[in-house]
Amino acid sequence: MGKVAVTDWEDSFSQIFHVRAPYGRFQIEPARQLLSGCNVILQAPTGAGKTKAALFPYLLAGRQGLAFPRKMLYCVPMRVLARSLRDELKRLEDDLDVRLQTGDQPDDPRLEGAITFTTIDQVLSSFLNIPYALTLRQGNVNAGAVVAAYLVVDEFHLLDTESTLPTTLEMLRLLNGIAPFLLMTATFSGEMLGHLASVLNAQVVSVTADDLAGIPTQRDKIRRIHRTDALLTADAIWERHRSRSIAICNTVERAQALYEALRQRAGSGSDVVLLHSRFLRQHRQAKEDRVRGLFGRDRAQTGSAIVVATQVIEVGLDITCEVLHTELAPAAAILQRAGRCARFEGETGDVYVYDLPRSASGGRAYAPYLGEQTELCEKTWQALPTVEGKPTDFAGEQRLVNLVHGDTDRRVLNGLEQSRYAHRQKMNKAIGQQAIGLARDLIRKDDSVTILVHPEPGAIENPYHLEGFSLFFGSLEGQFRAWQRAGLPDARIDWLMQYPAEKVGEEEEDRPLRYEWRKVETAADLNRSTLYVINPRLVAYDGDIGMRFGDGNGFQSPLAVRQRERLAASTHGYQRESFQEHVARMLGVYCAGLDREIAYAAARLERHIGLDVGSFDRAIQLAIALHDVGKLDRHWQQWVHSWQERISQPVADDVMLAHSDYDPASPHHRRAEAETTHSRPPHAAEGALAVVKLLHHLLGASRPAGANLKLLKAVFSAIARHHSPGADTCHGFDLHPAAKATILRALAPVAADVAADDLVVMRHGHTRLDSLLVQPDARDELLAYFLIVRMVRLADQAAMAGSLSDWAIVTSRRASERPVS
Questions:
Q1: CB 772 within 8 A of CB 692
Q2: Chain centroid to CA 426: how far?
Q3: Domain 9-214 has what CATH class?
Q4: Domain ranges in the chain?
Q5: Which residues contact 666 (CB under 8 A, 6 or more apart)?
Q6: Which CATH topology does 577-810 take?
Q7: Kind and range of the H or E run holding 688
Q8: What is the pLDDT of residues 135-185, one digit of tens each?
Q9: 3-state DSSP call for residue 603?
Q10: Alpha carbons 603 and 625: distance in angstroms, whole number
Q11: For 219-243+253-275+293-416, CATH number?
Q12: Is 177:608 a contact under the CB 8 Å cutoff?
């Protein structure tokens, strides 16, 4: 793409981050490469300022109007305390829409923020159409956000080599040339670094000796690592405690037990804090603030303090201590944890690595490190004596990583290439069939599920509106089997867990989704959802310890903070719209700013496929104008007019409606809904088939090059699947006589002077649509479909949430007004 016209990179960096100068070339070079169209792998030590290097190209592009995505997804390999990153960024750019989206803080389920700090699990599940944060019916909403974003994958070396890593690599291969990405690591082996650069066609940026000298956290400090042939206990911590200590356990249960043991000994003179993923948001945020106050760079509090944590502390907290205690983990993870000891200039610290408890079989209890990672734990244990008690700098860390991870990485890399086809087929199945059972194979070998606590799941209107806890699948499965061994369920506790199944029928934006709650009766049932409700008799919670299994104490999952805010501001109702009004509102939403989200990706995909400039914009506006044509079916209009009569708000017969009036707070409306015996006819796939010939004509799909045919399939699929990603069948339709005139009026702002007489299919019987739909193995069509369906669904939801006066109704926008690459 050529060089970018930035006159002074260093000065721009200094101005954006309010610093004297960047630490070195490694903080600037990624921006040069990314803004020139290249992807980057950045290797730098912990505490070196990689976050600023990642943010720089995005913030610079925004300030100088450079061609770059308007959305940034900053993802890490696990649930982390990322609020500090968000708060720091908000201080720099207060007007930026910065959000968090993790399993335990789901503030941005549709990935709508300008910058979203999230986890790799959230990103992969979104791309695979099985999003952890949304229902399966909304499964294709977020994939387009991934395609349209600047992707940052931090601490890439921590990804599970059997599931997360190969899926991430394959996703990045699919996105190559469309979505720019930056991979960051402190501890890649040389073998892995070279291979990734080759397969991803990425530029490697590493710190030089001169760079290291300029990084404050690497100067005049000493960090020593020790292997301890014992278990991590409260006595061991107190024996070595000075004034600031951090202890990291591999499981929440062991962290909770260690915290209680320490608290019993601490007395009034020591501050002991527990951090893990099973706290409610308000308690977790208070603990984050407390830890920063005790262990942060500018800590104001003095005295004795100890933090007990799990892996959540490995990434995202800029804190330091004199002594760090950690259970055995792979070398890369150990060094990541060690980055929280003697982190700043002039400090001295010691890291103690402890053996693991034994499992029932007598071997080490490696969980959550499974598969290849258990071997890495063993190799780490054997290699630690090579650094015993010695000051360990960045070069020494790299030698340890190469020693432990080198052979395994070579084997992993060979395995990745050999299994690539089979892995891609699994990804295709997940995308095409929403096969949620593949999540552990594709996203994380021991992936997380969301846990709610509630006495009556059937009374929950929307389980995704409650605040839950993230739990590793293996932990949940182990607890379920423990309950079974204890003879549960029994006469006192008649059910253990339940999970929601979306009721069959086409989702509508103006009606809440209904769920059928099913009991978990066997371990196999734990593969059927990413969300489970546990009987409150089996769970206790308090603000100091968090959630734990045991005799219940009356805890019940509360409504999430953001949902409380939304419900407080919402009227809970919908107003009827004519077909014309609904299309106008959606076009207004799209053209008033939503279109900018995908402009960069659309321009790059247009060039790659060979489409005319602006083809995506026109295709999306056509999809919006035609997405609800299936509602012009005679039976659908009969249904909606009958509903309006039932609620005593009739509409003239010649008015073609897109939505009805509906107020869930109205007893009259709720009674009418309960008395309705016939569900509304499906319309999405039916509407797509009704306009397929019209789309073929409007998109010029008969051109011999085939590029426009790809776009046609993407638009057709977006219309057919704008309510359900798995829709593949037209159930038959018979359009109303007023349909053609209605379609022409809706099309007028997008495609004037089109003759619809012979191009609209007025009636059709039951048929499957497989040959017309985008298939997951068709890369160009798939990415185009992801972008288009996201725009249609977000515009649909936003138009339903607002009123006509809320949006500037814009019917066209010149391509020159949009950023292009």
A1: yes
A2: 19
A3: alpha beta
A4: 9-214, 219-243+253-275+293-416, 447-565, 577-810
A5: 573, 647
A6: Hypothetical protein af1432 (1.10.3210)
A7: helix 684-690
A8: 888 999 999 999 999 999 988 877 888 889 899 999 999 999 999 999 998
A9: helix
A10: 22
A11: 3.40.50
A12: yes
